[in-house]
Amino acid sequence: MKSRFPRAVLLPALLALAGAALADGPARTPLPSLYRDECGSCHVPFPPGLLNAGSWQRVMDGLARHHGVDASLDAASAAQIGAWLQASAGSGRRAGDNPPENRITRSAWFVRKHDEVPASAWQGPAVKSAANCIACHPRADQGAYDEHDIRIPR
């Protein structure tokens, strides 16, 4: 059967779809301003697809002791952010595991994607922590983690 689409149109479209389906970086989900303002006031507002719904629920339930600080929110803000995180949570391979302490930086996906980063880079004064995404990914606050944009500080 002959396709009604010319090969010059169909092949690039299929390649684009395959690339999107196989992409291993965090999907760009628009971040609500409340999430950006509240969560982004202490760290990069992480793409919600990096954790599954269960992990996000545990993060939200533990805000009073969020990695050593009290990140509590008023009830309305917590409900709004929590509902958005649940609706936007990851469900694929990247978010499939439950990382220790619900830390994105300890998930199997994160560890695998950063395995070539030398241990010394995480401890340098410009980075300090694996959770400081913007130190190496200059557009992380916009949800952009393209491998071509990485700049590891020395």
Our count of domains comes out at: 1
H/I helix tally: 6
Average predicted local confidence, pLDDT: 82
Secondary-structure-derived class: mainly alpha
Radius of gyration: 18 Å
Strand/helix succession: HHHHHH
List the helices and strands and how they pair.
Blueprint: H1 7-22, H2 33-39, H3 53-61, H4 75-88, H5 108-113, H6 119-123
Describe it for me?
- The chain has one domain (24-149).
- Helix content is 37%, strand content 0%.
- It has helices at residues 7-22, 33-39, 53-61, 75-88, 108-113, 119-123.
- α3 (53-61) packs antiparallel against α4.
- It starts with 6 loop residues before the first helix and ends in a 31-residue tail after the last helix.
